[in-house]
Amino acid sequence: MDFESWWLIFMPLSFALGWMAARFDVRQLLSETRNLPDSYFRGLNFLLNEEPDRAIDAFVEVAKLDPETTELHFALGSLFRRRGEMERAIRVHQSLLSRADLPVSQREHAQHELAQDYLKAGMLDRAEEAFAVLKDTTFALPALRALIRIYESEHDWPRAIGAVEGLRQLANEPVPQLVHYYCEVAQAALAAKPSNVVAAKQALADAQRAAQATHATGPSAASVRVAMLRASIAASENDRQTERQNLQSVLTQEPEFAGLIANDLLSNYIATDEAETGLTLLRAHYQQYPSLDLFNVVFRGLRHQRGVAQAWTFARRALESHPSLLGLDRLLEVELAQAADGTVPEYGPIPGADLALLRRLINRHTQRLDRYTCRNCGFQARRYYWQCPGCNAWETYKPRRLEELE
Question: Rounded CA gap, 163 and 168, in Å?
Fold first, then answer.
């Protein structure tokens, strides 16, 4: 009975306390709402009515009257940037930076947001200047990463290398593309008139050290590129032995990339009157690591060195083992050449076939298959790229044509 009496007293007391708490919260909310400036509500109204420019003016007025509303500006600027309205995003963040009373931490934040606005808008010069201001702030790390992307897009490889070195001092994180930066420097030195071979060799030595520092495992497009550039330097100095060693290192260490160096390697053997040895080496490699690029080099080499019949025989047997429309296109090319010369291939001609028409039809289809494709964004290209032109990612192309990946 006593328990029930206390329970009857407790229930109304709890209700009364809850009602008082609710009244206090509502009053506090109403008090805070009354303290907000009218510009805040005008800004919300303009925003809801899809008048963003007038909303920005209203929110700028809010910031002048109440410094605590800076977070509202950051949210608004980020919203505009995500929607692609870059002029408005820039205007919001510039209005923050124009305030003399803005604390240092928020000023750095606003500077970082403004730099991102410029970058997304494609205003690379302004973005570079804005990110450079942040090098000694709490935003130094993301600013350096952004500067690296900017220097990449501008092909300013020395400054990209400098930015990577600065990034290493702040964070112990690998930057695999640094090898390619040095390779780009070496390639530019070789392409200069006259060629600066000394600078190219130094850049490749730096690239080798950068590759070792990343401790890369498995097939590496970067190591292939270093070997190819060293082979190119050796060829320019008429050092056939060093050129051959570098090219053959790709066959042994990164065999999937053989198609990229096969033509240069065969030319090296031809230059030393060892064409037969070169063809035998490449044919043996094709048996273990078949690829369309390697097929094309061996096919053309056989046709030039041994005649159409042997080239046709190789192509026929290769297609039996690895069916390919691109390979068939090359085979029909030989068939047409034989028909023009009046030669009959070992296996006989294709009976009743209009080879010219057949090749035209197949060639039209193979145009879309005769491409490399980026694994990151799907960008397709006829030539092999170390850096994708579509998404600017490094080493995203496999050394195989699109048909071989399907």
Answer: 9
